[in-house]
Design brief:
Blueprint (H helix, E strand, L loop, with lengths): L11 E2 L6 E2 L3 E6 L16 E7 L9 E8 L3 E2 L2 E2 L14 E7 L2 E6 L5 E6 L4 E4 L4 E6 L5 E8 L7 H6 L3 E6 L2 E6 L7
Antiparallel strand pairs: 1-2, 3-4, 4-5, 5-13, 6-7, 8-11, 8-13, 9-10, 9-12, 14-15
Bound molecules: fe (ii) ion (FE2).
């Protein structure tokens, strides 16, 4: 009995747009669904990012993967970014491969330690377990990356929603700067 036996399959990714074919699960995050994540309130409801997920069961014997397209833009001087999350199963790791655009991957431990890495086409970022991760588009084009993660990683958005990330990425004199988050609630 092999309850999770799947047929092998292939998916096409357009590296420039990040769009998948066929048949992804698509999640769109607009500014209204990111209320409280940016330091300033937004006065529009523009789209910030979308996630396009290849359909496989979210179970440990599978590898989930998706493209994320973070649009260029800012709320105040803070660049558009993803919500960011810990994995519900904290020890599950993840790999990011940037396909187009440029940005920063901000990672944080629950004790407030942070590491920030560049995202640009061809760069693989390895996110070990226990590190929350958020991607930030610091460029003028969409930031597109492909992520692969263990099927039962799960999502813990609540910890970030409550505490924020220890740092934020803001535009200072026309370029990105990683600065302490004045609203971060240390554990
Ligand atoms: Fe993740």
């Amino acid at each position: 009995m092999t309850p999770h036996l799947l047929e092998p399959f292939s998916v096409h990714i357009d590296f420039e747009s990040g769009l998948l074919s066929p048949d992804p699960v698509v999640l769109v995050r607009r500014l209204s669904s990111l209320a409280g994540y940016f330091l300033q309130n937004a006065d529009t409801d523009s789209e910030v990012y979308s996630v396009h997920e290849i359909r496989v069961p979210a179970e440990r014997d599978h590898l989930l993967s998706s493209t994320t397209i973070v649009l260029p833009g800012k709320v105040g001087d803070e660049y558009y970014m993803t919500k960011g999350h810990f994995h519900a199963n904290r020890d599950r790791s993840e790999i990011y491969l940037t396909l187009s655009g440029e940005g920063l991957l901000v990672m944080a431990l629950e004790n407030g330690t942070t590491v920030t890495k560049e995202m640009r086409p061809g760069v693989v970022n390895y996110v070990p377990g226990h590190w929350a991760h958020r991607s930030v588009n610091t460029g003028s084009e969409p930031l597109v990356f492909y992520a692969v993660y263990i099927g039962d990683a799960g999502y813990d958005y609540a910890t970030i929603a409550e505490r924020g990330f220890p740092v934020v990425v803001v535009d200072r004199d026309g370029g990105p700067s990683v600065v302490p988050n004045p609203r971060y609630l240390a554990p």
